[in-house]
Amino acid sequence: MKTEDLIQKLSIDLVPTKPMQSPLRMTAIFSSIGLVLIGASFFMMSSRIDLKEQLSNPKFFFEIGISFLLALAALALSTFLSRPGQQDKTKKLEKLCVGFLALVLLYDGFKVAQLSQSQLHLGMNLSGIECFASVLGYSIMLGAAVMFWLRKGASTNPRLSGLVIGTACVAMGNVSITFFCGIDNGMHIFLWHFILPMLAALILGVTASRFLLKW
Predict the structure, then answer these.
(1) What letter would DSSP give residue 48?
(2) pLDDT of 75-133, one tens digit each?
(3) Which of 30, 128, 171, 175, CA to CA, is 20 to 30 A from 97?
(4) Number of domains forming the structure of the chain
(5) 182 Cα distance to chain centroid
(6) Is 26 exposed, middle or buried (0-12, 13-18, 19+ CB in 10 A)?
(7) Domain for residue 4, yes or no?
(8) Is residue 187 part of a domain?
C-alpha cells in the first residue's frame, strides 16, 4: 500500500481541533497575499519603462493571464490536498494544473522557436539572473505564507503538495516580474522568468514540505 493511501485511510475520519477555512476561501486568501506582494514590489523595484503602453496591449494581459490562471489552479489544488477525502476534486484540479502548465510552456516555447541564433544567445545572457532572483525571492515569500497555513491541515501527499506550492508561487512570481522586466526576448522569459525559478522552487517546495507538512 502506498504511503499516501495509508494516510488517506487513517485520516478519513479525523476532525481538526480547530476547523480550517474552506479550500476556496483559502485559495482566495493565498491569491490575495500574492497580489499584495506584487503591489509591494512596486515600492522596492522600478516598473518597466513601457508599462503604460503594455497595459493597453492584449498580448501583455494574455501572458500574465495564463500564468495567473496556473497559479490560481495550483493554489486551489494545494488547499484541497491538505484535506483528506477530496480525491475527486484533487484529480480534476491536477488535470487543470497540467493543462495550464502545458499552455504556458507551449506559449513560451513558441516564442523561443521564433528567435534567431543570436537572439537565443542574448536571452541566455547571465544578466537574467537578476530576474531569476526576483521571481525566486517572490516565490519563497508567497510559499512560506502558503505552507504556514497548510501545515495546519493533513496533506496525504506532502511531496506533491510541495511541488504544487512551488509551481503556484513561481507562476505568480512570473506575473509579478512581467510588470518590472521590459525584456521581450522569449528565451530570457522562458529561462530566467520561468524554468530556472521553477526548478529551484520545486526543490525548495519538496524539501520544505518534508518538514512542515509531514505527518
Answers:
(1) P
(2) 999 988 887 767 788 899 999 999 999 999 999 999 999 999 999 999 999 999 999 99
(3) 128
(4) 1
(5) 21
(6) buried
(7) no
(8) yes
